Amino acid sequence: MAKTYDYLFKLLLIGDSGVGKTSILFRFSEDAFNISFISTIGIDFKIRTIDLDGKKVKLQIWDTAGQERFRTITTAYYRGSMGIMLVYDVTNEKSFENIKNWIRNIEENASADVEKMILGNKCDLDSKRQVSKERGEQLAVEYQIKFVETSAKDSLNVEYAFYTLARDIKAKMEKKQEASNPPGARGGTHQLKSNDQQRKPPSWLSRCSIL
Amino acid sequence: MTNATIQEIEGIDDYWGPAFRSVYEGEGGHEAFLQQLDERIKQHDKEIEKLCNFYYQGFIESIRELLEVRSHAEELHAEISNVDANVKETTDGLCVRSEELIRARRVELNIASTIEKMELCLPLLTTYSKLKSQVEAKRYYPALKTLEQLEHVLLPRVGPYAWCSHISSDIPKLRQAIQDASMADLRDFLENIRRLSPQVGAVALKQTQEMLGRSLENIIKNKKDMATLGPSSVETNTPQSPHELVDFSPLYRCLHIHTVLGAKHDFVQYYRSQRRQQARLVVIPAAGNLHDSIQSMKSYLNAVLGFFILEEHLLTTGAGLVSSDWLGETWGSARSAAAGTLRTHTALVTDPTLMLSIKHQIVLFINALKCYGLPTEPLPQLLQEMAEHYTEVLMQRWVAVFRDILDNATFRPIEVENQEQYDAVMDTFPYDGDELETQAFPRKFPFSSVVPAVYVQVKEFMYAWLKYSSGLGLGGGGRAAAARHSTSLLLTRSFTGCLSALFRRALPLTQLVQIILDTQYLESATPYLYEFISNITGSELVTAQPAGSMFQTARDDAEKQICENLQHKVDEFLDLENYDWLLVEPSGQASSFVTDMLGYLTGVLTSLEQLPRRAREAAVTAAVKRIACRLRALLLEGDVRAVSAGALHQLDLDVIQCEQFAASDPLPGLRDQLLEHFASLRQLLDLITSWDWSSYLHDIGMEGAKYALVSPREAATLLEKLREAEQKSSVFSVLKKNERDRRKLLDTVLKQLKQLQNQDG
């Protein structure tokens, strides 16, 4: 039977509270923007299917709460993610500095080969800018992570960011597949599930993931 | 003889015949005679000669004398002609003089008679000129009197002169002119009072207002003011009665004139019809849109009131010009027309402040009418209708307010950083904050900022609403009841309406939860609102009120949205499903989308904890039901043709996960109910995996059967899919005996199921 998609990628948005994670997601999933700020509580997700080199790729993008008090809930989602968007606010120095902490967080909680990307959001607010593009690039080079400045409000680079991340994940996965599987086997992410765990009550730690 | 004959001839004058005979017959005959005659002649000649001789001297003398006479005569003649010329000359001058005299005499006579006649005419003329000047000076009434005198006394006395007839022919014209002019005056007057009647009305309303505001304190205060200001300043030109603004004299004059002219009846008729027309006009607002400003409404009411105050005044002073019947009738039609006008115009008012002012004006208007003894009938009724409209207008306004509040709301619990902020919230909303009091800052209220905002606005609404009902003569209890009614109407209709509108957008779960909580806090504050009402109106506190249902519809909507929200998320997870339906070996592990989903649901359920149990139940049930339904559909729907035993096991594994979730008591006490939703799927899976066809077919149709929820059709559908998968995968295993038996059994069971299916129809 024909599947509705060829790949399912789970992506995660992290970053300080108020940097615009939800807005970026809203822009990407609904192509809309809402000026009012409603902070995300716990965790939520949106799904969008994109076309990548003739393949249907479903992106399940988890939007986490930036606030400290939800940290325990959100870190549980790191492990299952294949790609992580680190978002900071170009008008907020602190949020940029915190990117390093977030990266450490990823290193502690996410799988090692997770694809990452840094987004400097709100680049439309040039007059209030505190973090230059060069500094963003500098940081990205330091960690060897891709970087782009975005504006959820003006719909700038949002699509590009998600497509880039998805493309990188796809490339990595196909490479891995070729290495481990002889050609002709069925493709699909579920093949990458580990089989060494016993069935347990559902918990995020028990999630099947690439190891 | 011969002598004789001559004598004879001489003696005789005629009859000469015999003389002739004798001449002829006489002796000597003829000769003789001739001789005789000669003789005779000679004789005569001698005689003549002698005579001439004798007389000659005398003759000459006479001639001489005659000649002398002739010269004398000539002398005389000359003298006489001289005298005659003289006389002629003198008489000529005399004649001229006498003629002149005659003429002068005649003139003198004429003059005398003329003066006599003129003296007769003089009064007539003076009167006439007086008349003219009176007419000119518009003193029509004396003019009419003069006219009368002229016509009946003076004109007959004077002879039939042309100018008299001219004057007398002028009289009717003049009379008509006077009538016309007085009519014109009347029209001026009518126009004038039309212009003045708003002022009259304004004064009357002002006086009414003063009278209404009259109280002991005010009177004392006024007296004091008077004492300080001195009496002079108070008694300045303010009219005592409103009608004193109008000068009625033209009207009275006109009435007199027409009475004199004998046209009083016509005049009264004319006046009444004119006024009736005016009355008809006055109830049509001049400004067009009364609902635009209070000013136009004021002037409208002033005009109407002034009009009828004047009529009422004329009723007592107008000498029958206005009858009470007529006034009653005119006012009757005018007031219903005015009420109609007011009704249409006030219905268009959308500004509550304007409504209030209009209401105030109408109340004054009614009071003023009462003062003048005019019936007010449809107007109090109108005020009632306006009260309803006012409520509507207010509610509309507050809909905007609520919408604004809701649009800008974050639907997050209020967090306060310090005592000041805490007090600010506690001041605006009655919340029993005993527990919160002891906590450290930042403190967190359970409700969002919508709650105090709405509460304050509801209070504002009540203030506004009660403003209208003041002065309407309602009792405190009545007002309070009506206020309670309007308030609950505002909350149940307007606010709930706004909430419903809010739900039309897809809202995040957390907002929905907060909305439900907020409505509960608002409901719990209703008694405080009632207390507030009774404080304002001074009526007794009414506590009984089925408050719980006020926002139930809104809550239902919110709950529905929560359910839909969850179901949508469940759908999104299930859309990620990617079963390999021909899987040989199950992974021994639940599918990732199922574990993701259950994890997500657990998280959501914890965030729903503040909700009333009912809502949580509904949410969990909706989610679980959707999961069960979707999983079942995956198995049974036509999209999947073949299902391998391995795939079936994988699905079974996932269902077990879900059942575990249900059994983990996400809501205490709901476990069995939740499991119920998976029951039919569970029975179907059990039946297939345990291959327990004998007991299924045996028990079918029996109460409490093990597989009671599995219909033969479903069993058959799934069985067919299994067979399809087996045919695909194990082409070579057909040779094995137990495989062959199994397939045979399968076919038999299928046949039986088909039969059962057909029996059921």
Describe this structure in words.
With 211 residues, chain A is an alpha/beta fold. Chain A is built from five helices and six strands, in the order βαββαβαβαβα. Chain A has a six-stranded mixed beta sheet, sandwiched between helices. Chain B is an all-alpha fold and 761 residues long. Chain B has a two-stranded antiparallel ribbon. Chain B is elongated, with a radius of gyration of 72 Å. The termini of chain B are far apart. The chains are: A alpha/beta (211), B mainly alpha (761). At the A-B interface, strand 2 of A face helix 18, helix 20, helix 21 and helix 23 of B. Chain A: Its main location: membrane. Chain A: It is found in: Endomembrane system. Chain A: It is a lipid-anchor. Chain A: InterPro entries: P-loop_NTPase (IPR027417), Small_GTP-bd (IPR005225), Small_GTPase (IPR001806), Small_GTPase_Rab (IPR050305).
From the N-terminal CA to the C-terminal CA of chain B, the straight-line distance is 224 Å
Strand order of the largest sheet of chain B: 1-2
Tell me the span between the first and last alpha carbons of chain A: 29 Å
Q: Largest inter-chain interface?
A: A-B, 36 and 40 residues
**What structural class do the secondary elements of chain A suggest?**
alpha/beta
Flag low-confidence runs of chain A: 184-211
Based on CA atoms alone, the radius of gyration of chain A comes out at 17 Å
The biggest sheet of chain B amounts to:
2 strands, antiparallel
State the gist of this model.
Chain A: Its main location: membrane. The complex is a heterodimer of chains A (211) and B (761). Helices cover 31% and strands 22% of the residues of chain A.
Jot down its keywords.
heterodimer, A: 211 residues, alpha/beta, 6-stranded mixed sheet, 6 strands, 31% helix, disordered C terminus, B: 761 residues, mainly alpha, two-stranded antiparallel ribbon, 2 strands, elongated, prenylation (chain A), lipoprotein (chain A), GTPase activity (chain A), Ras-related protein Rab-8A (chain A), Small_GTP-bd (chain A)
